[in-house]
Automatic annotation (TrEMBL):
Name this polypeptide is given: AF4/FMR2 C-terminal homology domain-containing protein
Biased composition, class Gly residues, residue ranges: 276-289
Disordered as annotated region, ranges: 1-109, 245-291
Residue ranges, compositional bias (Basic and acidic residues): 80-90
Keywords: Nucleus, Phosphoprotein
Organism, scientific name: Eleginops maclovinus
Pfam families listed in its UniProt record: AFF4_CHD
């Protein structure tokens, strides 16, 4: 019987787990947290819970973590808590070292407009431009008013572009572009959008308007370039002949080698005006008046004025382009993303490329200002 009791005790010992010391880290304790640690390796709040938590609470907390995934990210990988909605990728024009110029954007990219390649008539674009202009007229907010005027100006540019394609149009595209320039300048006079006190959004609008003006002035020059070349040749020929005749003719200030009076400072200037005066005095019978004015043929005066008006478009184009460059430095992230969404503007861009670029920028400004 004692032998039987010993054998049954040995069987019971085999069935029972070994006794553990209270000070030892036993395998069962390790196994208890294996499941919770394996579930929490993805990096949730359960990763910071102690291993003494029961398996039911661990599974429920990990279940809650999976349900709330996307709202709270792990601090196990980075060592800090990160909001995934505010986290932006380092690429695609975003700067992770500092906040963007606008706080309203939480999406990785701003929405991109899609444009149709369908070509419409000049009248179609004219009606669209008038609709946008009337919409701007009805607004009270100056910023929203200027944005809609600028958008209407883009449709006027489309209208002028259609006139260039159809030579049978009654109105000149040069005139259309010139009137569009006046509309944009009027929109910019509603408020000083380029001043130091202007908001970031207002400066962005000023950049877009200055880009428009720059390329419009340049396009206006190209439309009249042939006229400018002809005027330049005629004027240079006139100045050359005037210089020759002024050397051959006697000086109006000397008679028989004696000085009649003190010459005007204007008569000593080597400017084209003095050449014209010399030519007019020698060739056409004109003479300097007491106020220093000279007489030139009316044809030459008209030609010189037209030449100045045409070539001045180049100076204005570069002036507005440089102004846009200066103002864009305050919103580099915005315009870098705009360049990636559309082809970057250059002074060789077409009118179609200009319209799409500016319209995309205006759409983003409307979204930022909640104007849609």
């Amino acid at each position: 019987s004692s032998l039987n009791r010993k054998q049954s005790r040995r069987r019971d010992d085999k069935l029972l787990p070994p006794l553990l010391s209270p000070l030892s880290d036993g395998p069962p304790r390790k196994r208890m947290c294996d499941s919770s640690s394996s579930l929490s390796q993805e990096g949730g709040a359960a990763a910071m819970l102690p291993c003494s938590t029961s398996s039911s609470s661990s599974s429920s907390s990990s279940h809650r973590h999976r349900r709330g995934e996307g709202k709270t990210s792990s601090n196990a990988r980075n060592g800090s808590e990160v909001d995934t909605h505010n986290e932006k990728p380092s690429g695609d024009g975003y700067h992770t070292n500092g906040p963007p110029d606008s706080e309203v954007w939480s999406e990785p990219r701003r929405p991109k407009l899609s444009f149709s390649d369908t070509v419409h008539s000049a009248d179609y674009y004219m009606q669209e431009a008038k609709r946008l202009k009337h919409k701007a007229d009805a607004l009270m907010d100056k910023f929203g008013k200027a944005v809609n005027y600028a958008d209407g100006a883009l449709s006027f540019i489309d209208c002028g572009n259609a006139m260039e394609r159809d030579p049978l149009e009654a109105k000149s595209p040069y005139t259309m572009y010139s009137e569009t320039v006046e509309l944009i300048r009027y929109a910019m006079r509603l408020k000083n959008f380029a001043s130091h006190s202007a908001t970031v959004a207002e400066k962005k609008l000023a950049v877009l308007c200055n880009r428009c003006l720059s390329l419009l002035y340049l396009r206006m020059f190209h439309l009249k370039k042939d006229h400018a070349v002809k005027y330049s040749r005629s004027l240079m020929e006139y100045f050359k002949n005037s210089a020759k005749s002024s050397h051959q003719a006697p000086s109006p200030w000397r008679t028989n080698g004696k000085v009649n009076g003190t010459p005007s400072p204007l008569s000593l200037s080597p400017s084209p005006a003095s050449s014209i005066g010399g030519g007019a005095g020698g060739g056409s019978g004109g003479a300097p008046g007491s106020s220093g004015s000279v007489a030139i043929p009316q044809r030459i005066h008209h030609m010189a004025a037209s030449h100045v008006n045409i070539t001045n478009n180049i100076l204005r184009s570069y002036e507005h382009w440089e102004t846009a460059d200066r103002l864009a430095s305050d919103s580099q992230e915005f315009f870098q993303e705009l360049d990636s969404a559309r082809e970057p503007l250059s002074q060789q861009s077409s009118m179609t490329e200009l319209v799409r670029y500016i319209r995309q920028g205006l759409h983003w400004l409307r979204l930022e200002a909640h104007l849609l």
